[in-house]
Task: structure prediction
Amino acid sequence: MILCAAALLSLASGALADEESGSVDELESQYVYTDPWADGYFIVTLDPGHGGKTTGGGASWYGGKYYEEGKLVMKIADYLKEELEQYWHVKVYMTREDNSTAPELIERVQKGVETDSDLVLSLHLNGLNGKKQGACVLVTGGKYDPTPNKNLKSTEEGVGRAILKELHDQIGIKNNGFLYRDSTETRYPNNKWADYYGIIRGGVLNGIPSILVEHCYLDNKKDFELTLNSEAKLKALAKADADALVKYYGLRKDEYGSHRLKDYIDYAREKAWLQGYSNGDFRPDSEVTRATMVSLLRRFGDVPAGDGKAEFSDVPESKWYHDDVSWAASLGIVKGYSSGEFKPDSDITTEQAAVIVREYLYSAGYDTTVTKAAAENTKADTGVEYASAWAREAMAFCIDAGLFKDYSAGALDPGSDATRAQVCVILKNLEDYIANRASVRPEPEPEPEPEPEPSFRIDPNYIPGDEIIVIPWGTTK
Ligand SMILES: [Zn+2]
Result:
């Protein structure tokens, strides 16, 4: 098999071949790869091959338009960086930012060293005689390994295998497997022949897994049309690469980094109303159970848990939410179903949340009657229109009170499950409502004190204006 570099060696000058096989040996070993997550981050250096005047392979397609390897892999690298940066605790560095320069091989490896990278991924496109198709990955032959775990080769093969699989499964690129190639000139410190390709060799010398992916053949019409002739296809290549790293390294999306309700989520976490999961996820779009909603409200109000018994057949004392549900039931915040159940594990719907939040405010002394104005204001709101009959008033109240502000990107859907992010919205809006509402519901008029038993009576013949004649009880006149 001949690779892009080698192909160019025969087609063009030897200088480009040197670009991939050239010397990195003067590089002092500064970094030794251990556990990729030891520092809490997966760090990858992306190396778009070639650049500057060293355009890499190339081919003319469609009316003579010339496609250069260096420019295409730059685009793939940009897409790949964008994709990977959506993941949690991932740092992405590039060996070049545009097409203006072609860093030396040693600089490319050095970038991986400087950044404590867990992987150097060199991106290339292959070329031969127009007839060959498919992808292959260049990895170390494993003759030298300075890492404590001696796992450079297995790591490189693991990542390489994952990439080849995704390229095949997602795009249909033929899997040509690994390529190992030894130098015939350079030896490793243990005197064994070094890996031929500079990026691979530099990685080995520094104990960084470093692989070179030949994604497909740029000069093959089928490969070109399958993978390279549109931005969408270049993006798909990057996505396949990214997904392979995601699977191999177990990367997870930072789900709320770009979430519409991120500010609300951040605020709720700051307030410790909701926390993320122990693995760092927040799962903003997951549902919330009825038990959780009640528990959150209690935490929101910082109210001690009730000690009464929840009168629901499906809320046993042994459950973590028992005290929360008892508290809410004792205040009339939740009433459960006519079957006598509370259905604690059911997902709470938007309209159920509206009812519970309104009852919460009522129990805290707020006036939750739906004013005529509120009923008018919310009449045209589809959120109210489509609510269940028992929830319509609560929806109208909550909408009018601003409790659903920002809740929904589009029209409010009362029957939809509330998400964790949306519950953050409700709690924040609830806090604002309470903060801006100095007056609470007027206390009912106290029962008038009973008249004290008089110890005297007034002369029934008394005429106002006259002197009052007090007649002790028990005497008659
Ligand atoms: Zn190349």
